[in-house]
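Handout, page 2. Input:
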Amino acid sequence: MQSSETPLNIDREIGDRNGEGKALNNLGNAYNNLGQYQKAIEFYQQSLTIAREIGDRNGEGKTLNNLGNAYK
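Output:
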């Protein structure tokens, strides 16, 4: 997942919390698609925390949906 982790590192370096949350959600999606559900859940939970901290209701909803899919 190295290519997907690069945007995450950049977002963290520049302090872009919204971008960081989206990058974490994308990593969760990638791991979910690979069948690595526990790893996906870890990324989704991090994304959810950020969405709630910054008041991103849309991001929160998307992440909760993705979490539900990972728990299926």
